[in-house]
Amino acid sequence: MPLTEKPLQEVRKLPPCRATCPAHVNVQAYVALIQRGKFKEAVEVIRRDMPFPAICGRVCFSPCEDACARVNLDQAVAIRALKRLVADIEREQGRVVAEPVPKKYSEKVAIIGAGPAGLTAAYELAKLGYPVTVFERMAEPGGMMRYCIPDFRLEKFVVANEIAYIKDIGVKIKTGVEFGKDITIESLKRDGYKAIFFAIGTQLGMKLNVPGEDLEGVINAVDFLRAIALGKKIIIGERVAVIGGGNTAIDAARTVKKLGAKEVMILYRRSREEMPALPHEVELAEKDGIKFYFLVAPKQIIGENGRVKAVECLRMRLGEPDESGRRRPIPIAFSEHQYEVDMVIPALGQMVETSVLPPELISKEKRGPPLQVDPLTLETNIPGVFAGGDVATGPASIIEAVGAGKRAAVSIHRYLRGEDLRKDREEEKIEETTWVKDWRLLEKKERRYDAPIEKPHLSFEEAREYLEKLKRQARFEAFRCLGCGPCAECLASMGLCEGDKAVVDEGKCVGCNVCAVICPVGAIKKNEKGVAQVNEELCKGCGLCAARCPEQAITMKKLSNEQILTMVLTALER
Amino acid sequence: MEMESSNPPKIVCFMCNWAFCEEEMRVPYNVNIIRVMCVGRMDPALVLETFINGADGILLVGCKPPDCHFVDGNLHAERAVKMLKKLLALAGLEPERLKLLLVSPLEYKGFSHYAKEFSEEVWKLGNSPLGKEELLANLTAAKEAASAFRLRVLLGREEELTEFMNAYGVKISEEEFNALLDDVVRAEFIRYKIHYLTRVKPRSVKELAQILGIKPSAVLRHMTNMRRKGMIALDHVEGYTPLYKALEVR
After folding, report:
1. Is A103 part of a structural domain of the chain?
2. How does pLDDT run across A71-102, given as a tens digit for each residue?
3. How far is CA A314 from the centre of its chain?
4. Minimum Cα–Cα distance from B153: chain A residue
5. CA nearest to B58 within chain A
């Protein structure tokens, strides 16, 4: 069985990109497929691990790139941009329609919340053969992806397409159903649902807790973005202050600027280095003409006739690092100053809407998250009820929610099959590995690849050429992947690579060590008998050892010398 | 190997799995592509075997350093090709019939361009100047030399010897290694040619020297060596002339 199709439990050592990714997407495999120009197959490989290739290709914070071993040489492989490109190319000829997965089990599963976590859990469970229904309060599924990420970062049709794919494989999505009002745990159990997964996210924007917050013109970033996504009319101010330094703050600031605000400023209480927003996004915001004021925190919002007139701030200095690792801002006394604004958008983070949750789930402790779940299995204190994603961890990213959704799906599957939820969990076993022994052969180079943000206006012919150019660039970028992990066998299922392994004939081996020196991945070692031994987990099947073995003691399992010779003979007979 | 001047040459192309993708594979019909995991995977003996089986030219396609998927598979291929060209020259076949092409995916002109270019180069070379029999003998000898321990171990150790040091802690320069490789390739080729010739029928030193075109003393030196290794043995004596016969190797 190719490694890509093996359950993660059996794959111990992973390349850094896959080990770091919360959803453990097989990066090495799809990058290798892009290398070979197999774009469609690359998307298929991504879909094995998660249902959102196009969404993550746009807005993922790409922890894989931070972990990429290529950093030691020049720059990380542009994994996210590659993912975006293949997902877009797949859509080139219309949306891909998936085959429905036949229902293998009869136990119904209910999922509350059609955000990334809920949809991923539904996708994974439907793939296993469970009848899954997702309940969503809003009119459209997608959660924060649909309602909080502005259109210029993530187009609505992209979200709709990926959700349509999930629906294709057999997930039912019921929108406009509110938990606590239309359905409860009891009603779901009465309707025959055997397991419930809470993935309601964090929908409430945090409050500033300063005087003047109720004034007209103060609107929370989450509410603001949601209102824009819903198409509601909102009076946009001329001078807008966005408070906070996260991605939501940047999104809100850029949105309000694009909607016509003359001057937009972001007020952040720490300095630029501590900003949780992606550096790339910050750069784009600066390009849009948004001003940044660092080390300032609002003290009060001053109003006039019930409307915002100014925001009064205190200057801050940075103290010792706090538990999050960032330096704690300390206000400087008597440093009050005012910014003249007519709109204030606080973007300080989100919190769980506890009023929606059933009271028995809410933890009694005052400190900590309102919902206590087992971090490994995502169980709550009610059997059969699971919770994960932002609702359990606090606001995080799409890919982390996807990871939680996958974990929930494994737990629910085990729970419904009566298996041990804790035994052999894949998350505990992942080991990071990179085989690259030394870098002496590789020279330092400056290269940077990114998928184009703006689409040029082109004629039909030009567009085709342009796409060819993009594909070529992508293949070249994918070529930079060093393939850190053990054999990804990514091409084996496509019939392009044999997923080969070297075999040593112990009778012939004289222990000369030539193979051990030649092996690029260090998969061959001499054992105590003085005979070469192949570590099959590491062997990538390149066959360099077989080509050099002085005694011809090494053969390849699949593409042996004899096999190549047969191919030569048939070729020459033509 | 006998090629009508009107027929295009038969080209076999061993291509790295990672070098080109299928869409770029519009190649002339006389070029046959065989995918291998890495050009470095090409066993030198296998390349010579392909020539024996009637290929007019062999093209090895890999990735340009430093982009090899297996770090230095392409450099291993370079070393093998260096040795193979020496063997081909000894066997009387133009070394240009073997070409190693290391291309980077960004600067390629499409594989068909390179395939056509190489095909034309081989076409220009025409038929081999040697007769069919002699060429087969030479190529078989070369192939056997390339499958034997001595050349292979030298090839496998090249990187170790020239970039680090040998078992005695001495580093060998590139020139020294090349001179050594020249000597060994030549000696091994002659020995396996002698082996091939004595396989057909028992022959004397003088006869062998005549066929090989080298001094009888040199032949004798090789034969002493071969007898020690158990490659040949005395068959019988005709008059005063001892005749030798090849023994089965391995």
Report:
1. no
2. 776 778 889 989 998 998 888 777 888 899 99
3. 37
4. A550
5. A568
